[in-house]
Amino acid sequence: MNADSRTRLNQTPEWTALAKHREELGEAQLRDLFAADPGRGSGYTLQVGNLHVDYSKHLVTDETLRLLRELAAARDVFGLRDAMFRGEKINTTEDRAVLHTALRAPRNEVIEVDGENVVPAVHAVLDKMAGFADRVRSGEWTGHTGKRIKNVINVGIGGSDLGPAMAYEALRSYTDRDLTVRFVSNVDGADLHEAVRDLDAAETLFIIASKTFTTIETITNATSARSWLLTELKAGQEAVAKHFVALSTNAGKVADFGIDTANMFEFWDWVGGRYSYDSAIGLSLMIAIGPDRFREMLDGFHIVDHHFRTAPAESNVPLLLGLLGIWYGNFHDAQSHAVLPYSHYLSKFTAYLQQLDMESNGKYVGRDGQEVDWQTGPVVWGTPGTNGQHAYYQLIHQGTKLIPADFIGFAEPVADLQPGLVAQHDLLMANFFAQTQALAFGKTPDEVRAEGVPEELVAHKTFKGNHPTTTILAKELTPSVLGQLIALYEHKVFVQGAIWNIDSFDQWGVELGKVLAKRVEPALTEGAEVGGLDESTKALVAKYRELRGR
Ligand code: F6P
């Protein structure tokens, strides 16, 4: 379907039908929906790979779901999905294919871009990464002075940082505990300072991760890391080869930086930054967990890719999650979406999803170049659940905003937890289940009174409930399960972008800030007169210089 000739989303009959249905449902209560359908708790569930997905605590009926699926059909979500998997250039503003799914394709699959099968190249890089990771892990790869590498520092930002940093935390129990793995992203010198201050340069490998190899934060940090290394080793440029490798699509810039392109691991322009951690960008993770575990993770991604591509709409989990987001964002005016993992290992999971979702769907211009007049991507936020319970859950329970939330938990604690700590897992998960129950069903004034609460406190202790949640439960957090979870969210974001008719794969909105930062810097350092500064920014720059004694 030609996007330009599409009817505006909010003028389609499917949209109008959903709006009418929303009015009819009014303030439908989850208590009533469950009372009307005793099978809802087990019936409103789906399975994908190892993920059990319960959507019973949502403000939906069978009719809501049917109407949402009709909207997806009318917007040809599956047509765009197939075009993506086929390698068509669905990232129209950058004229690029969108093929992160090829990164986890089995060796024998054929996926073509511009008539060329990309799968052999993907596996060639994976094999090269595996060879390198094994050499570092075994001690065969040594630093300039012959010492074994004990520290690995990934230098990158955005998609070249968040993915490997998140996955390293998530899979810590699978990592080689003798290796120190750190991630430097912030151009604030404190980040690199803290990362290297207690390390022996002779034992340290820097992985410079940048798709473009032009990102100023990364190149600045990489340059500082190189100076630190050469100063510490009292060595010349020849030491760089054993301590710096690059992950990039830009061989020319990698060579300009002084890294031997033999030590470069490539990927391709059809891998978006925020979809790249299962490409060469995952090298630090592969060194930490080993190539076999990395492959298990890729296979987990592939399980969900296959499901998204083949499952019918009624049982297609990414489609369902995408549609639920549309229901709340577009028909309940929800502004945000919380992702609340009940696993300490997923402490960076939501931060990772912020880029995936907000950089993909935070857009007000549609594929047709017209401004949309419907809500697009939500604010995605959250931290591990139990900590959140003692911070912001108050607002979710009793605030004035509707905040749909995903609860992610695991039946088993990680394998290498000390036996004494294993017992805590039931308490963790008791909180997990209790919270979604409390959010959904709340506590009525009568229930509060029955507890003997004085009348003047009844309103304060009443919970209205009706806060929608999805529960995602798996047996344990393995590399495969992590891959499954990430692919699930990738495709959910895809579904929403397809319905909103936006290009989820460009990111023009981050450009202006980058350009202005370059323009402002000489004003800070040299007091240069730079054009185009507004009065407020000029005054702030002057104050900054005064505070720095310049
Ligand atoms: O924030 C913009 C962005 O282009 C992201 O999409 C990307 O992940 C990040 O910058 C880093 O880019 P690069 O890998 O090219 O350094």
Automatic annotation (TrEMBL):
Record-listed E.C. numbers: 5.3.1.9
NCBIfam families reported for this sequence: PRK00179.1
Pfam families according to UniProt: PGI
Primary localization: cytoplasm
Residue positions of the active site: 359 (proton donor), 390, 514
Catalytic activity line of the entry: alpha-D-glucose 6-phosphate = beta-D-fructose 6-phosphate
Pathway stated in the Swiss-Prot or TrEMBL entry: Carbohydrate biosynthesis; gluconeogenesis; Carbohydrate degradation; glycolysis; D-glyceraldehyde 3-phosphate and glycerone phosphate from D-glucose: step 2/4
Organism: Streptomyces yaanensis
Cell compartment(s), UniProt: Cytoplasm
Record protein name field: Glucose-6-phosphate isomerase
Sequence similarity: Belongs to the GPI family.
